[in-house]
Amino acid sequence: MKIVALKEINESRVALVPDSIKKLLLLEGIEVLVEKDLTSMVSNEAYEKAGAKVVDSRSELLATGHVFLWVNEPTLEDIGNMRKGSLSISFLDPYNNTETVNALASSGIDAISMEMIPRTTLAQKMDALSSQASLAGYVAVILGANKLDRIFPMMMTPAGTIPPSRVFVIGAGVAGLQAIATAKRLGARVEAFDTRAVVEEQVASLGAKFVKVDLGETGQTKDGYAKALTEDQLKIQQKAMAKSCANADLVITTAKLFARKAPIIVTKEILSEMRDGSVVVDLAAGTGGNVEGTIVDQDTVIEGVHVIGIDNLPGEVAFDASSMYSSNLTNLITHFYDKEAKSISLGTEDEIMKGCLIVKDGQVVNERLKDIYGGK
Fold first, then answer.
1. Which is the most buried residue in 83, 237, 254, 257, by most CB within 10 A?
2. pLDDT tens for residues 306-344?
């Protein structure tokens, strides 16, 4: 079985690193091939030393590979040149990338979506969404600290004592918790809010203050995501958030809704109450934004506040992001590798595979997508 990694378009991360190749080659019947100059972070020689074959011809790889590993979804052009019956594994965003999913199906290419990996204990080592979100939370604090016109820790000087910066994190999922931990390590005073009261203990364990807001009935999905709020609940939340935002030097918003547009939490009215020169990092910029006026991949000044809307925050630390993602892919392949057939088993009787397999044998087979694509 030929496992292939190809160069990405407008992406600093890469799907496969040498350490993962060494692990994959322990599986009997596996051959790993990478496109020449796959990434500037790792040399062709390093890939060859790990046991991969470096190939100059992209078209040759597309025509002969069995399993294709990507960070982002393949282009329509690449799909048209991929070997029929092959398997594509990537972040796919199947709720929105309908053209790509349909192209995969019509081309007879099976597809796994990494963001659809179930959030279970067994699947944790394959959970690329969480691994990348953790890095996004870290990067958000570093970017915010760099942009902010204040230092993070308290500092006692002959000229007087400088108080610590105040950081307010909205959303205490994987990204939010990492943001809290990073801000605390840098010496900031941290507050956090989440619609799920169940995370209060986790927030407190990191040394942050949990901001309580009575929103009535909320909760989380079976996969651990926060449930969408009603319009009335959003208004209550915004009103409560206004005070915490006004007191903060740096606000980090992480409220994403899976397969849906992100909710507006920080309005222009709230921004107008914040100190000029303060900073907001919007982790949901790529899905509509939590901040009114966010522009994707830009640093915008709104009501005197710097609003950072970089979509691909993990890409800012591409080396570690690639290593983590490559490990997630390797764990997925290892878990589902059939030694006798020397291929990846796509049987949907397994709960993990059932959750992440999108296309099989020319059909969209995922139960959660049938309202969009129809299917069996």
1. 254
2. 999 999 999 999 999 999 999 999 999 999 999 999 999
Domain pair 2-116+318-362 / 134-312, same fold: yes
Strand 31-35 and strand 53-55: the pairing is parallel
Distance CA 246, CA 223 (A): 33
**Strands of 87-90's sheet in order across:** 53-55, 31-35, 2-5, 67-69, 87-90, 110-113, 357-360, 363-364
Instruction: Tell me the per-residue pLDDT of 37-47, one tens digit each, with 9 for 90 and over.
Output: 999 999 999 99
At residue 208, what is the residue type? A
Q: Spell out the alpha helix ranges (H) of 214-273.
A: 231-247, 268-272
3-state helix, strand, coil in the chain (%, to 5): 40, 20, 40
Could you say which architecture CATH assigns to the domain 134-312? 3-Layer(aba) Sandwich (3.40)
Is the torsion defined by CA of 228, 231, 233, 234 positive or negative? positive
Q: Which residues are catalytic?
A: 119, 124, 127, 130, 225
Q: What is the pTM of this model?
A: 0.92
CA 170 to each of CA 137, 174, 203, 254: distance values in angstroms, whole numbers, following the listed order: 11, 12, 11, 6
Distance from C-alpha of 352 to C-alpha of 344, rounded to nearest angstrom: 13
